[in-house]
């Protein structure tokens, strides 16, 4: 596994080693909880060490009776004969330990060395003395001593604590803490695995060992390695400490000390033992498990009778006084564990509402689901309310199938009750979420049904939202801007009348967006609407608008604005727990990267969406489209099955509305040389667009018909498409360049003169577009354009990553940390050309950053 977020520690340790190898020596203490990656860090340090430095690695073992000088025994074969003889004498009692220490010091003084002593928390007394002895004398020897230990297993009386006190005054002793991985790092490790990265981070708390265990056994609720590690720690505790840990596991991940004291009086000493064992830790007046998976592993071993009794006692204790909002989820959990349905019905809905108000939609969905398990005897209106809450929480947390099912059930209950207002609202919400599920036709019918029901009740707030829904659907279906504007006007009128700021800001946004897509105006109004929604504290409204901006900027092929829109949407959705919106934003990010020429990154972004357990069908279809088109452009097999799978996830209307699926199919046919299919597919798309007005959708289809030798119909087209259809290939290519779309610019240049063809060929070769490279060479031969470079040069073929000589020059400069401007100055090229070279290097290496590319320079095997 990659060593993520350890670069700073490795850099510091490498610096210590370089300095210590020429003297004076140093001691580095590397500390962190179990599984945090201490061994991985010191192993990588050893790999990075100068070959002239001797590597000595020994470890302490978790034995009931530790081996005397165990680490030294491990590394003895790499030491001189005097050390080996003295060590043997010390072990059989014929030699004093201090004689071994003297011999080891002399040995270290004779050769630059890296001496690693792992897991010092398990060391015997003599090894502790050896570290004290060496630490005091290190300035006289050319060696770096690295000692690792678990800081979660040493208490106030531990031998390591005493050792640290001894070392505190030495200026040549350095301390390095290994922190848990961040959300971003966990998500990166999760790529390629069908796992919810956010849930993975929650369960592991960023511990690399637990992350790896879950990824290696995704089907197991608790991986065997984690279960066995927890069992081993439990076995090392006293009976009293195990009892405390069992009770804590039942009580939850974070437990107030007063609650534990009330259930287990006089448990202070046992709690200290449990903390020293590394399973739990104290944080002020709270005790918490280090990782949720650890708690679950402990809970699994607690007898059912014990769990029932603890739940009952905890429920009684917590209900005896004022109940804080933050305790509602715990009370609901204890109520279920205690077998008290009435208490579940009291606390679970309240906990769900509190979680939803805090933006914790995943937790809200779980609490509503808990309440619904005990809702059979509740009145119909209360059951309907629980179902509506569950639907909303599921939909916002990305569990669309569950959310839609609950919404449909709630809708039937409202009809049974004759509650027309809530029936209309449920219809509107059902329509809203059918669209991201790819059911656009049903979404439209359901939206109209909602309006018909609500219009019969007179003006109301719910009708404002129903008009807004039709406004959104009209915009997404790319109907004429006046249709969207008409619905927007109705929604704004009622929204202002009933004080619904969300309706007003969304309606104004979608009316402006329809203008932006059809004639290019309205951009500023859209941006203002997004900012207004965020400023007014409307997280869901702002999340949707931020997402739509990702979509529409990608449709307009505006790579810079797409990047900015995706960054904003991701940050907002992460802050407010909007998982469904987040996955859609990341799917559009993949298309933006594809347009920008970062094909490897685009494929990675698509795989990230596809590896999530529950992306909305629209997001999944978009990701499959991106992945299929990348494969098609690179000349790889199995591109069409991906495009067909994308088309099967959503209805035809949705495939067309998103714009990308249809165009991708046409391009894939062109890349495969099937010009008849190009014309047929493109014409089908244009026929389906009849009656709509979206130049950025109809334009590319018309251009593909022209490129395939057909005559496109007269249709609305936008920007570079209009120029290409008018025969102005140079103007079209220039617009594509300004939008940051090098591949599209190169496609247009295939209609140009000899310099344009040479420029197109260079672009295609840099991007790795194998099929188009061959097609471009054929065009050049047919037009008598010479000279033609016949494939990659020998140096490129010999390079393990397929980099050209110039790209290798760029990679070396990236290793020096140079910017595009600095690379351009060094190589006497333009900054824009340098940027293209950097993009090509990243794409060919399949990396995401300049730093990752630079590291590849030192690891030549792909």
UniProtKB/TrEMBL annotation:
Organism for this UniProt entry: Streptomyces misionensis
Protein name per the record: AAA family ATPase
Keywords for the protein's UniProt record, in alphabetical order: ATP-binding, Nucleotide-binding
Gene3D superfamilies cross-referenced by the UniProt entry: Tetratricopeptide repeat domain, Winged helix-like DNA-binding domain superfamily/Winged helix DNA-binding domain
HTH luxR-type domain residues: 796-861
Any Pfam family hit: GerE
Annotated InterPro entries: AAA_16, P-loop_NTPase, Sig_transdc_resp-reg_C-effctor, TPR-like_helical_dom_sf, Tscrpt_reg_LuxR_C, WH-like_DNA-bd_sf
GO CC terms: cytoplasm
CDD domains: LuxR_C_like (cd06170)
GO molecular-function terms, A-Z: adenylate cyclase activity; ATP binding; DNA binding
GO biological process: regulation of DNA-templated transcription
